[in-house]
Amino acid sequence: MTPEQQLCIALAKMLPGKVRWNEPYGGLQWLHERTMVQENQLLFICCVVWCTFDRKQRVSFSRNLREAVINSGGHATSFEEDIVACCENATWQQRAEALAKTNGIEL
After folding, report:
1. How far apart are the C-alpha atoms of 34 and 36, rounded to whole Å?
2. 21: buried, middle or exposed (CB in 10 Å: 19+, 13-18, 0-12)?
């Protein structure tokens, strides 16, 4: 299983009423449309999960996102500058990793 597939499975766990992991196709499926989630929709799904967070979880997510960006080759300056840069430039994979860590989901 690829890292991207593991991240998709984690997203499915965080949005059980909206998407599910479709094993035969190796991707996420929208439950209400019965269509596969396209790669360009994964960032939207990350935003939907983030919107379910309370203030404390959003602070934790920001820290986890900064860590995910740094771990994938980003650089660290001041914490405040990093948070802004991360929120503007993070990939769906980095966001999904941070969301999973915030929700206590092992990857």
Report:
1. 7
2. middle
Q: Give the total number of structural domains in the chain.
A: 1
C-alpha span between 12 and 30 (Å, rounded): 10
Q: For the packed helices 92-103 and 55-71, what is the interaxial angle rounded to 10 degrees? A: 130
Q: What is the pLDDT of residues 32-48, one digit of tens each?
A: 888 899 988 998 999 89
Tell me the residue range of the domain where 25 lies: 3-103
Q: Are 64 and 106 in contact (CB under 8 A)?
A: no
- The predicted model scores a pTM of 0.84
What value does the mean pLDDT of the chain take? 86
Cβ atoms of 46 and 91 within 8 Å: the answer is no
Residue 21 predicted with pLDDT over 80:
yes
For residue 70, the SS3 value is helix
| Token couple for 18 | 């909206």
Segment 40-60 shows an average pLDDT of 91
